[in-house]
Design brief:
With 384 residues, the chain is an alpha/beta fold. 32% of the residues lie in helices and 15% in strands. It has a six-stranded parallel sheet with strand order 1-4-3-2-5-6. Strands 9-8-7-10-11 form a five-stranded parallel sheet. Helix 5 links the parallel strand 5 (123-127) and strand 6. Helix 6 (160-170) packs across helix 14 (356-365).
Length: 384
């Protein structure tokens, strides 16, 4: 169960506890609490890998707290534009299997030991790209000096800036000049080692599952609408397998729903990114690459599927029940009726398009930290 811890101040006027150089040990049963802050807009593979690594480098049995810098704070300090709301960010983080608690409304200020104490936090964690505040000071310098800073390798090949550049390229008009960088739009590469870092194999085995549920879809541009559908599907059994459709099937599906006029690229995230995003969701147990649009008897039988889900009122999912004829004939097809107001990929893209000029301005001045063409090679054990 995710516990939401609210911090409503947007300044450093929070209650300050007496500074201590080491984690408090007044309660023997108290677990070490580690805070990883972020804006978390358009939660993506880089974010999920940061959360995974923060948990990995934390002391045993620690509590990982995901802190959210609200859009208003980011805009106050750095400007910019955003696609997802603070509430949607909290919902996405709450569904992440690496996160134990959410800390909302974290101010974008210098992280001091006193501020960590006011949050009930022992350590702050961050990637090795330590942020610098507008005044030139290190945002995490004081907690680093105090020995309360955990560092991990930032994820190569993906960043929010990189993802926004892909969206800008995908929605680029040939008649309008966009001064947006187009180098290295998609540098993310999935290897077996990277896949294993997100796999649930060590904690949950398909051989031990008694009631396997299957659902398939695009799952590009992973968002809270997808999470809600996956939550509903998982409630039908004890093991959820998610099939990811091939790009050509995705293209046909999107064209059928009117995306072809606004969206030139087949997908925003590649197959590997979509798999990592799904495996980071606490409702998902396993994924299948290039899942068939028509699951036949051999496919469903080999997986021992007891329920096959079809979503009938959400445009991100193919509602055509004829493709699930085998599941229907076997009596294992389950129709999920979803709230009509649930977010869709198109609704998020509409938000992006409405503020596209703002995102162009943002990315002109924003350096893409995921671009690696001029960086030294890093071993796969150091990055995602």
């Amino acid at each position: 169960t995710i516990t939401k811890r609210y911090f409503h101040n947007t300044t450093t006027t929070a209650t300050v506890y007496k500074y201590q150089h080491t984690p408090r040990n007044d309660d023997k049963n108290r677990k070490t609490r580690v805070l990883l802050n972020g804006c978390w807009d358009l939660l993506h593979t880089g974010h999920y890998n940061a959360l995974r690594q923060a948990r990995e480098i934390s002391p045993p049995n620690s509590i990982l707290v995901a802190g959210i810098h609200p859009n208003s704070e980011i805009k106050r300090v750095k400007g910019g534009a955003f696609v997802t709301s603070d509430k949607e960010k909290a919902q996405m983080l709450s569904a992440c299997k690496f996160v134990d608690e959410i800390l909302e409304n974290v101010p974008y200020v210098t992280m001091t030991p006193q501020l960590l104490d006011s949050f009930g936090i022992d350590y702050a964690a961050h990637g090795d790209d330590m942020p610098v505040l507008p005044n030139g000071s290190s945002m995490y310098g004081p907690v680093f000096d105090a020995g309360r800073y955990l560092v991990f390798k930032r994820s190569e090949g993906i960043s929010t800036t990189n993802l926004l550049n892909r969206l800008l390229e995908a929605t680029h008009s040939q008649d309008v000049h966009d001064p947006v960088p187009r180098n290295g739009l998609n540098n993310f590469i999935l290897t077996s080692q990277r896949m294993s870092q997100f796999s649930n194999y060590k904690t949950k085995r398909i051989e031990e599952a008694r009631h396997i549920v299957y659902i398939d879809g695009d799952f590009d541009f992973f968002h809270v609408g997808h999470v809600e559908v996956l939550k509903r599907a998982k409630q039908l059994g004890d093991y959820l397998i998610v099939g990811i459709h091939m790009d050509q099937d995705t293209r046909k599906f999107r064209e059928r729903h009117g995306f072809h006029n606004e969206f030139k690229l087949c997908s925003v995230m590649n197959m590997g990114e979509r798999a990592i995003n799904l495996l980071s969701c606490k409702y998902v147990d396993d994924v299948i690459f290039h899942a068939p649009l028509v699951p036949n008897s051999e496919f469903l039988g080999a997986l021992r599927v007891k329920k096959v889900c079809v979503v009938d009122n959400h445009m991100d999912f193919i509602s055509d029940r004829n493709r699930l004829k085998v599941a229907h004939d076997w009596g294992i097809m389950e129709v999920l009726h979803i709230d009509d107001n649930l977010i869709t990929t198109k609704s998020l893209l509409d938000r992006f398009l409405n503020a596209r000029d703002d995102f162009v301005k943002r990315n002109i001045v924003k350096k893409d930290p995921s671009f690696v063409s001029m960086r030294p090679i890093i071993s796969s054990t150091e990055c995602i």
